[in-house]
Amino acid sequence: MTIQRPRGTRDFNPDDMVLRRKLEYLFRSTALSFGYHEVGTPTFEDAELFIRKSGPEIVDQLYIFQDKAERQLVLRPELTAPVIRFYASELYKLPKPLKIFYFGNCFRYERPQKGRYREFWQFGAELIGTNRSEGVAELVAFAWYCIKCVGIKNFELRLGNLEILKEILSTWDIFGTEQKDFFTALDKGDLDTLKLILEDSGRTPEDIQTFFTLVQTKFKIGELKERKISLLDHFPTLDKHLARFEEVAENIKMYNIMDFTIDFSIARGLDYYTGIVFEIDVESLGAEKQVCGGGEYSLDELFELTDTPTSGFAIGFDRVALAYGMEGLEKIENELDIFIIPFSKETLKKAIEISVSLRKAGFIVDMDIKGRNMSKNLKFASNRNATFAVFIGEDELESGSALVRAMSTGDQVKVGFSDLLEYFKKVI
Amino acid sequence: MTIQRPRGTRDFNPDDMVLRRKLEYLFRSTALSFGYHEVGTPTFEDAELFIRKSGPEIVDQLYIFQDKAERQLVLRPELTAPVIRFYASELYKLPKPLKIFYFGNCFRYERPQKGRYREFWQFGAELIGTNRSEGVAELVAFAWYCIKCVGIKNFELRLGNLEILKEILSTWDIFGTEQKDFFTALDKGDLDTLKLILEDSGRTPEDIQTFFTLVQTKFKIGELKERKISLLDHFPTLDKHLARFEEVAENIKMYNIMDFTIDFSIARGLDYYTGIVFEIDVESLGAEKQVCGGGEYSLDELFELTDTPTSGFAIGFDRVALAYGMEGLEKIENELDIFIIPFSKETLKKAIEISVSLRKAGFIVDMDIKGRNMSKNLKFASNRNATFAVFIGEDELESGSALVRAMSTGDQVKVGFSDLLEYFKKVI
Question: In angstroms, what separates the C-alpha of B427 from chain A's closest C-alpha?
Answer without folding.
Answer: 18
